[in-house]
């Protein structure tokens, strides 16, 4: 019988210290403060088998940044043996970033298992985790999205719910509900922009409620407003 390998690539979000096919990443998001020279996130391999760890930055739309990157990940590629711990360092690049509002990027961390004679006929899984990397300029330090979330403006039209964010911060939703009926689990709205969500029916009215995911991946307080 012919030997073969199957590599399955799966894109997923991680919770804090969530397991990534054996590799543990020490967070689900990074807030890069404008007055810092770098940011770091821990990685641990509790398995006995080694992994190859590859990391890179994408823009908000998920595109790989080739010219003048805003951030550089180091080391971008390394081997992590069983029981080993390491740090990924994110360093500011040469690209100028807005200093009056937050900017969103994606930190990608792919863990690729080793291939050996012992597991040649087993399923080999390479897992890519995408973590939000939010740049918060120095002028916005000391405050968070939670302090500004009541500034959100909500509007329904037909079967569409629109939320407008007049603040300088990204609003990352844990959930949005109308009259305790779930509209969406997750989602976000960028600073000074709007986002739309699908309603289950037209002419929906009543009270809207939502919670945000905070800087540490935890859940914020319940907020409510009238439509």
Give a description of the structure:
The chain is mainly β. The chain folds into two domains: about 10-140, Immunoglobulins (Immunoglobulin-like, Sandwich), CATH 2.60.40; about 145-225, Immunoglobulins (Immunoglobulin-like, Sandwich). Helices cover about 0% and strands about 50% of the residues. It is built from no helices and 19 strands. The protein has strands spanning about 5-10, 20, 25, 30-35, 40-45, 50-60, 70-75, 75-80, 85-90, 105-115, 125-135, 155, 160-165, 170-180, 180-185, 190, 195-200, 205-210, 225. The strands form four sheets. Strands 1, 4, 6, 8, 10 and 11 form a six-stranded mixed beta sheet that branches. It has a five-stranded antiparallel beta sheet with strand order 2-3-5-9-7, with no helix packed on it. Strands 14, 15, 16, 18 and 19 form a five-stranded antiparallel beta sheet that branches. Residues about 1-20 have low confidence and may be disordered.
């Amino acid at each position: 019988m012919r030997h073969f390998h199957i590599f399955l690539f799966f894109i997923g979000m991680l919770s804090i210290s969530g397991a990534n096919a054996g590799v543990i990443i020490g967070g689900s998001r990074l807030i890069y403060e404008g007055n810092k020279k770098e940011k770091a996130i821990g990685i641990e391999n509790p398995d006995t088998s080694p992994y190859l760890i590859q990391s890179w930055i994408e823009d908000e739309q998920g595109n790989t940044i080739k010219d003048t990157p805003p951030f550089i990940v180091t080391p971008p590629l390394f081997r992590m043996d069983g029981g080993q711990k390491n740090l990924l360092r994110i360093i500011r690049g040469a690209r100028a970033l807005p200093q009056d509002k937050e900017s969103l990027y994606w930190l990608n961390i792919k863990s690729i298992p080793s291939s050996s004679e012992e597991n040649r006929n087993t399923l080999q899984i390479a897992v890519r985790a995408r973590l939000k990397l939010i740049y918060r300029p120095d002028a916005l330090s000391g405050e968070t999205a939670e302090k500004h979330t009541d500034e959100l403006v909500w509007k329904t039209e037909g079967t569409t719910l629109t939320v407008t964010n007049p603040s300088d911060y990204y609003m990352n939703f844990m959930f949005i509900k109308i009259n305790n009926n779930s509209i969406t689990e997750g989602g976000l709205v960028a600073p000074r922009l709007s986002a739309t969500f699908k309603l289950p029916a037209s002419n929906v009215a009543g009270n809207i409620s939502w919670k945000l995911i905070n800087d540490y991946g935890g859940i914020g307080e319940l907020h409510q407003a009238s439509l």
